[in-house]
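Figure 6 in text form: structure in, sequence out.
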């Protein structure tokens, strides 16, 4: 997060309707002024689409042409809906409903169920996986954990594409979809799952949409009541609409056309959930008189990043590719993208961690850096490498900020202190607002230095630290602000789910990175078989993989690094090849003509790449089996093979590590991870060379901690200290 300013984190509400239009570019302004009739906004990555549509709504409300309660804006994630509500509030249009499809439908279902059906709405099933497991057991079909998750996903796909159990096998065959099990078996489990839901009087999230559609189709009086309330509709990320969501939208609209849709066919990456760009691509056919506006001015990324993104899409094929947008960067030039080839995956992860550390040392905040990969299973080796490099990180996918228990408790404490005012002795020595917040939150676990470790205690501290940073930003932006003012701001942000940033390098899959952006992005593991993924077989599936990489590229504002490894493990055969999507883009891989010409980056070989000595596989020193997992290779044995670890030495190393972490103000894993300490305690190195041969003990850590560790291994207390220089 950049430093707070009056015009960014806490902007003033525009004084007039015309002031809402200030600062919009010509195309964004055209969107904001198009308040009637069907409107289709084709918005490329980083072109300010959320800005355009929120200013459109706010201008309509502030000018009196739209009533706040008559507008329903829908999107696909709670985070996106929260961001939209936050922006509308800052523009003086706080009464507008901005929700996900599911939350909007659930509110309507809860309100109209007694009238349409009678009685109470069945209980909503938060997680369907256990019920799917019960259904499989009833069908005498055994599923392991991964199969259970995949079959659950198939049932969700079937429901959003309005496929009933009996039709599932035929529809799967027609769609060339790879089912995780025999389609006949999935059909059987799906049917039993639906039966169990009826027997237990529960509904799932897909039922929320299906039942709302059913009521609106059957009860014209209820449909008319909803249509009389909502006169204007805005749909964000329209390329991700499923057939079921489109059906619900049609029923909300009725015979009216006050609809504004926003999307980019080149960012369609969720077809596995039932999303399709067809509704966006067919919009002008369904609405011949629609106003169409293209947003192509990219305010996010440098010309170098945009150049690569455009070059990537220039190779695309298919209907979505025919509607691609050629982005035009509005930023000053930056560094060229860097392409790096490594010998193996652990080396790639270590090289990435070093580059991340260098960026942080150069002044890039950790929270403005992301490492993005194709599948979540790739995260472990990067978690390990970042921890070994002393770099804090966060895995994307945690619960929403304001729903965390520690944040709710902090809010209660701050509210109590605000009410007590000068009568709260806790605030006696606090000279300003940030000091007051720090004093209050110190009773909830906040300290000036982060705690050691990476578990729940650290997570709690990070949440409280984010609130402290928010208070500091708020005080800078609003001179003279009081604790009561901050509490009111937190309440409004909680209602809008507008969370402050928790610092740390982000580790995330490409899919979960959609809608986010960072100053520096590392796209890792870009090999054939991973990008595109092995199971992408058809031309359509391959093109979606290309779009997924495009989404990854366009997350970067300034720094972009793309890397791949020639083998999975150290000593493995260098049989991998870089992704076909990089052909003609990375230096030395051929030319694509004018679009990708002109030098689109620098090519580097990471440690060991292209000059490795042939080595055999890494073998377990206990049973001789080939090792493939990073943790096992660190220990040089299978995870379940007997350990000859010196337990007493391991505990002494842990105690020493805790002291170091406290002194450095870093989590314990930034000194050494548990696996590294285990490896040290198993091998008991006597020299620097023996210590440095252990994975996780690089030159920097050897220089910083080697003397202490060797002293502890020799029976001492490791009190030699370390050099922070």
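Output sequence:
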């Amino acid at each position: 997060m950049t430093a707070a300013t009056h015009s960014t984190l806490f902007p003033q509400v525009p004084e007039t309707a015309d002031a809402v239009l200030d600062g919009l570019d010509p195309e964004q302004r055209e969107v904001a002024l198009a308040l009637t009739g069907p409107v289709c906004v084709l918005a490329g990555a980083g072109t300010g689409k959320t800005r355009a549509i929120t200013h459109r709504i706010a201008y309509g409300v502030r000018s009196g042409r739209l009533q706040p309660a008559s507008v329903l804006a829908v999107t696909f994630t709670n985070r996106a809906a929260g961001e939209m509500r936050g922006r509308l509030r800052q523009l003086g249009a706080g009464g507008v409903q901005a929700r996900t499809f599911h939350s909007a439908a659930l509110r309507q279902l809860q309100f109209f169920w007694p009238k349409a059906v009678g009685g109470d709405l069945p209980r909503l099933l938060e997680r369907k996986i256990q019920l799917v497991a019960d259904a499989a057991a009833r069908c005498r079909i055994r599923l392991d954990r991964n199969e259970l998750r995949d079959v659950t996903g198939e049932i969700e796909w079937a429901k959003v594409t309005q496929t009933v159990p009996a039709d599932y096998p035929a529809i799967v065959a027609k769609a060339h979809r790879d089912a995780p099990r025999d389609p006949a078996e999935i059909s059987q489990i799906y049917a039993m799952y639906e039966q169990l839901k009826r027997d237990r009087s529960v509904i799932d999230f897909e039922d929320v949409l299906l039942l709302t559609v059913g009521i609106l189709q059957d009860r014209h009086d209820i449909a008319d009541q909803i249509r009389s309330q909502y006169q204007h509709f805005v749909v964000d990320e329209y390329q991700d609409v499923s057939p079921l969501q489109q059906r619900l939208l049609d029923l909300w609209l009725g015979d009216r056309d006050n609809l504004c849709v926003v999307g980019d066919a080149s960012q369609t990456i969720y077809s596995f959930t039932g999303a399709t760009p067809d509704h966006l691509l067919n919009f002008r056919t369904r609405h011949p008189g629609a106003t169409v506006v293209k947003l192509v001015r990219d305010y996010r990324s440098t010309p170098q990043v945009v150049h690569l993104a455009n070059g990537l899409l220039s190779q695309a094929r298919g209907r979505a590719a025919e509607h691609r947008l050629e982005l035009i960067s509005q930023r000053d030039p930056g560094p060229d993208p860097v392409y790096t080839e490594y010998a193996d995956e652990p080396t790639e992860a270590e090289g990435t961690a070093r580059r991340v550390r260098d960026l942080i040392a150069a002044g890039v905040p950790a929270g403005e850096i992301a490492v993005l990969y194709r599948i979540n299973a790739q995260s472990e080796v990067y978690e390990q490498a970042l921890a070994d490099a002393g770099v804090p990180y966060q895995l994307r996918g945690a619960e929403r900020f304001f729903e965390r228990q520690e944040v709710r408790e902090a809010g209660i404490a701050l509210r109590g202190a605000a009410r007590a005012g000068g009568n709260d002795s806790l605030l006696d020595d606090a000279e300003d607002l940030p000091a007051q917040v720090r004093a209050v939150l110190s009773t909830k676990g906040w300290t000036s230095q982060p705690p050691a470790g990476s578990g729940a205690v650290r997570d709690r501290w990070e949440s409280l630290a984010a609130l402290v940073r928010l208070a500091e930003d708020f005080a800078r932006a609003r001179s003279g602000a009081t604790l009561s003012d901050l509490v009111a701001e937190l309440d409004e942000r909680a209602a809008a789910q507008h969370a402050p940033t928790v610092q740390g390098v982000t580790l995330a899959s490409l899919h979960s990175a959609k809608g986010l952006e960072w100053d520096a992005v590392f796209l890792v593991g870009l090999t054939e078989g991973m990008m595109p993924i092995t199971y992408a077989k058809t031309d359509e599936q391959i093109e979606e993989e290309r779009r997924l990489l495009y989404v990854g590229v366009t997350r970067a504002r300034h720094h972009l690094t793309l890397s791949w490894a020639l083998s999975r493990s150290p000593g493995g055969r260098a049989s991998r090849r870089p992704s076909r999507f990089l052909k003609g883009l990375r230096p030395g891989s051929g030319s694509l003509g004018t679009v990708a010409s002109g030098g689109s980056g620098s090519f580097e070989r990471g440690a060991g790449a292209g000059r490795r000595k042939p080595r055999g596989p890494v073998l377990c020193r206990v049973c001789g089996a080939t090792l493939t997992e990073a943790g096992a290779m660190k220990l040089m044995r299978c995870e379940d093979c007997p350990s000859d670890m010196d337990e007493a030495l391991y505990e002494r190393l842990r105690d020493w590590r805790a002291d170091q972490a406290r002194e450095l103000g870093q989590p314990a894993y930034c000194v050494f991870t548990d696996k590294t300490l285990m490896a040290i305690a198993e091998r008991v190195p006597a020299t620097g060379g023996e210590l440095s041969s252990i994975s996780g003990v690089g030159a920097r850590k050897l220089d910083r901690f080697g003397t202490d560790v060797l002293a502890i291994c020799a029976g001492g207390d490791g009190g030699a200290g370390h050099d922070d220089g």
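Caption detail: Residues 1-7, 592-599, 611-615, 720-725 have pLDDT under 50 and may be disordered.
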